[in-house]
Amino acid sequence: MKIVLTPDWFIGKDLPIYFISLVVLIIISVLAIRSYKLNKKNKGLLNLGIGFGLIALATLAGVFTKLVLYYDIGPAQAIGQAIITSQIFSSVDVFYYLGFFFHNLLFLIGLYIIYRVPKKRLNLGDYVLTLYLLALSALLSVNEGFFYLFNLTSLILLTLIIKHYYKIYKENKFANTKLLLIVFSILALSNFIYIFSQLEILYVLANIIEILSYVILLFLIIRILKHGEKKKPYEHNIRYADNNPRKKRRN
Amino acid sequence: MNIISDMLTIIRGKREGIKPTHLMYKANLSHNQMKLYLNELIKKNLIEKTISKKDNRITITKSGRDFLLQYTRMKEFEKTFGL
Q1: Residue B57 in 3-state DSSP?
Q2: Residue at A248 is within a domain
Q3: Residue B60 β-bridge partners
């Protein structure tokens, strides 16, 4: 059985992509949660932090699984050997199913939380149903024949997220929101290409496009962080009626 | 929160400190409002008051600068995500 869609010549080369994504996702999650600590009234910040945090965890699960699969290292060997001895599965199968299932599930829940951020709260039943469907999608896509289900579900969630941020961008015309829109659009494009990733070249292309989205996300984070260091030109008379930035923003 | 950040921004703009009356005008606050906010900011160690024979001046502390930095980043983050 082919355990991953990674072409042989690309094995190991995709790991740096995962690492970079992981770092970027952790930074944005921490930034959102720290912002929430400053303004606890804004639960959206917390939800964003949790959403990106779950995607970071998903990426971590992906890195760990691929490390085990590619290099058959450490505890995986011991656990795998024990399982082989008891003739249940091969070590590779166990890590493949568990690792990628958690990767898929956490990624989808993370995206769903980001999608839900601006929306009103649902009742418990709706959340349970959604979680069940996401888990089903994550579980089925671990099988070789249905691998595309995960990317298809991600693509649908990303399309909904893009629609939301496009609406926000139309209202605020803010460069950072535009960048965010680009990030999610590129990520959606990579997921679209992943659907056809049984073709080796498309798998590699999707990987490259995915890393591009995380690089732009990193650029966006740097812009946000740098903004805090800028001194505003109006800071000497900030609350004057004729020079009030809030008043200007309304125009 | 917005008023506090605006006050801190004004104070940060004056390296040698700002007189309370100037701050009151620049922040467009009433005397009572400003007194209330100043006490809060001093209590939280975000600003400090230097009393001399010549005049009283308010300066921003390191915690105040850090707070302002975090606050500005938070606002930028909120604006980016439309929150």
Answers
A1: strand
A2: no
A3: B47
Domain limits for position A35: 8-241
pLDDT in tens, A202-225: 888 998 999 999 999 999 999 988
pLDDT digits (tens, 9 = 90+) for A97-151: 888 889 999 999 999 999 998 877 778 888 899 899 999 998 888 887 788 899 9
Q: Is A173 on the interface with B (CB under 8 A)?
A: no
A-B CB pairs within 8 A amount to 93
| A235 at B interface, C-beta within 8 A | yes
Q: How far apart are CA A234 and CA B37, in angstroms?
A: 21
Q: Is residue A119 in some structural domain?
A: yes
* pTM of the entire predicted model: 0.80
**Contacting residues for A128 by C-beta, under 8 A, at least 6 apart:** none
A1 is a domain residue? no
Task: Enumerate residues 92 to 121 of chain A having a beta carbon within 8 A of any beta carbon in chain B.
Answer: 117-118
Ranges of each domain in chain B: 2-80
Q: How far apart are the C-alpha atoms of B23 and B48, rounded to whole Å?
A: 13
CATH number of B2-80, picked from 2.60.40.1180, 1.10.10.10, 3.40.50.1820, 1.20.140.10:
1.10.10.10
User: Could you report how far apart the first and last alpha carbons of chain B are, in Å?
Assistant: 16
